[in-house]
Structures are given as C-alpha cells and as structure tokens.
Amino acid sequence: MNQRANRVRLPCQDPTLEIEVTDDGSRTLIQKATGDSYHSSSGAITETRQVYLQNSGVAERLSTGQATRVLEIGLGTGMGMFLTVDQAIKHRAPLDYVALDYHWLSANVVRELAPESWVDNPAVVADYIQWRSSVTDLQFPRDPSQSGHLPSGESAEPKSTSVYRWHAGEHQVVQIQRVDALRWRHEGRCFDAIYFDPFAPDTNAELWQTPLLAVMYKLLNTDGRLVTYCVKREVRDRLTAVGFDVRKIRGPKGGKREVLVATRH
To answer: Structure pTM?
Structure first.
C-alpha cells in the first residue's frame, strides 16, 4: 500500500502546489507537476533538524553562541531558515544567513504551513511573515519546480537577481536572493555550513553537477560542511572529485535510511 496516499492533503493558495501533513505533524508542500516534495513525507521538521541543523554542526555552533554563516541552496518553505534563526536568537549567536531560491514563496503560502509550530519563539515567524508581506513581488518563473534555478530558455535579467534582507534579530540577518544559483555572484564570501536543498537530481539536474558543487567547495571554510538528503552515487562521486570528504550517515528516524555530509578539510 502507498503510505503517501494515506497522508492528509490540503489545498494551497498556489494552484501549482498542494499541502501535505507529514508523519511528525509538520506541513510541507508537494509540487503537483512533478510530484516533488519540499521535505520528507516521513517528517518535515524531523528531517530538517537532523539533516541540516545537526549534521552541519550549525546547531552545536549556535548553542555555544558562535558567530555562524550559513548558505542555503533552495529556500523552499523556509523551515531550515526559521529553525536556524530561532536557535541563533535563543542563544544570542550572531548569524549571517544567505538563501538562494528563484521561486520565493509568498507570505500567504508560508502562513498556510503553520510555521509558528516549527519554532520555540513564534514571534520569529510572525516578524518574517510581516516582512515578507511588505516585499513587492517581481515577476516569478512559471515553473516553481525550478527551485534555485532559472527555467531553461529564460534570460538572467537584472530583475532575477533581487536581494532582500530580513533583520530577524539584533545580530541575526537573513539575505534572500531571488537568483539562478548557476549564475549567482558569490563574491568570494565563505560559510561555515551549506544546506544543499534543491529538488532531486531528476528534477533539477544542473544543480547537482560538478560546476556548482565545485563552487560550493570553494565557499566553505576549513572544516565546513555541506549537508543534503541526496546520497546518489553520482552525486557522491562529484563531491569527492571537487575535494570534499564525503560520508553517508544514518538518516532521520522513520525517514531516509541514509543522508549525506560532505566536509572541506
């Protein structure tokens, strides 16, 4: 029996998306055209906490008040961002968070996911929703399955590289760049961790190729980690080829059997 078929599905304001209630009670989104899920249906928040915050070392850094720089490829629902910002504010840790996503979800769609239930301090989410609502949307791509990637055939006009800053706390700043990740001008900045979270290689193939993975390696500080849910052999081989020390580790309980940690030494 298909377990996903038994999970609750809800309509979404974005007609290309559908809300799914995952096994840990948190909500995620399903892309109708491709069937891609923004998170594991076995538990969205469980996956995000372990695969991204814990496996990257970010949770440990923030808990000790260390200044931390995070890059996220594929902002999606913002769950990873919310959890990271929430912990940074809780522990008074300076945070510089940069997220790339060409299809930036509206405040109304995010609100439908009950994100206040994801964090210890719901005021963090409320502040984001208010800020996101104040941002005037530019033209978005027709295909939201292109998470972090400009749809084939579209030109990279200036409007596709818009930068927005959310001052989430006194020392916690989020910079969201609506930009094709393959054309992103990173300007040599370095990060302590990379949440590599585009849609699967079958959907966003170009984001999993050697050129972008090589850029990710260069952007990490020594001992920095790139973390992702994908453990495909070809992805592991590409990461190894550009210099990463790659290992598979146990996935979240009830979810994927293994996930990936790639470290720059």
So the answer is: 0.90
